[in-house]
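Two entries, shown back to back:
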Amino acid sequence: MSASQDHPPVRTLISPARYAQGPGAIERLGELVAPVGRTPLVVADDTVWSFVGDAVARSFDAAGLPLTRDGFGVYATAAAVDSIADRVREVGADVVVGVGGGSVIDAVKAAGHLAGARWVSVPTVASTDAPCSALSVIYDEDGGFEEYRFFPHNPDLVLVDTRLVANAPVKFLVAGVGDALATWIEARAVARGDGTTMAGGAPTATGTALARLSWDILWEHALPAIDAVRDHLVTPSVEKVVEANTLLSGLGFESGGLAAAHAIHNGLTAASQTHGLTHGQKVNIGSVTQLVLEGAPVEEIRAFVEFTTRVGLPNTLTEIGLTPGDVDDLTRVAELATAEGETIHAMPFAVRVPDLVDALRSIEGFSRRVRADAGLPEPVPHRAH
């Protein structure tokens, strides 16, 4: 949403109608879905359904809800969205429930909007802030970024069972930390300029503050939470990090603003070398690069590289399958990241393709030096799959 010259953008905050989190929360799904709709369609892939299906069935039975479950593929593609929307109409569903990762949740939101149904997000991992938002990221069949789709409202319910999160592979929690760390870096950049947010207006102080709160929680609790999830434990640190990754980052990015980091992520999806990486891993490359573009204090960038290395996130091109010498590939990344409508244009200064290419190429040497000085491991090359 852009403002006219006569009417400056209003400040706005949007959020899910209800957020519920805790160990065993999946057992209450039916109870919390029932006020939203009485004829649900649940969408979950076979792997996810193998460990949540019984609990969902029990909760729906207790709430007097019928259970219809459809499977899901890999990416939230336009075709997947259309297919789910067709099924919503076919079964007469008034609410569609996405259970699993960010792709199925994004596909369900977009399908619910197309079919005129409400939607509910049930992430089984804390790997992105997608569950809370009123937008979906649509990809092509190979995982390349295609477009954002925006909706008139957020999910009616977001339910996170932290026991499921703790039992998932730790790489998903790490990815969520990478996605959420960008929230404050981007929100503060938007607040310095006159950019608009995904909520369709200027950033609110509340959205910006929630982005900062997410950052503060992660710096204090990410490492102990990651250790706990490696052992499939739910601790107070795990609860805080799940909330930071999912709710605080979701509210913070949507009502605080996105900037360069996520635009760089979108650009990186065009490089086949990065396929197989999580959303949060690519976003973290965007965060380091944004800090370089901003001319942030060197000690701040150094601390970020050290911390994200300890978390297990990439901060060099090597770790995402690229090198500083891949100038043609990095130029394509930069061209996509700076395309019209991309969030990089919310930065408080213009970012040109050559500037972005140089910033991307520079993070390799800087991060390697920081890691060596701190006695941290050298980067391990990523092999696309």
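entry 2 starts here
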Amino acid sequence: MSVELNHTIIFARDNRASAEFLAGILGLKAGAQWGPFVPVETSNGVTLDFASVGPEKVAAQHYAFLVSEEEFTASFERIQQAGLTYYADPGLKKPGEINHNDGGRGVYFLDPDGHGMELITRPYGSGGR
């Protein structure tokens, strides 16, 4: 059997709000609450389980999503429509820009809990600049 990531837990102040935020940007649906989790499933079968915790337990994490050019365009439009600040870099030093690393497009933005979200159209190291 090959090893695959099945799910991960993302701590949030409000699991429903955070799940719906990310699902909305990505054009996905937040699922029904299951126990303490609100799931968002990606197309490759990985589930992001959002769990409500106190604000002191939310430590900023980074989540990167590989998307098609079409999905990037649609998600980036939703980022702009939501009035989110976005960046070309993980250090958040280039606001209002996207990057073109490896010949693709990439963007960083923060979710309501300060988690760094990244959308890329080409995997790192896949070539092009």
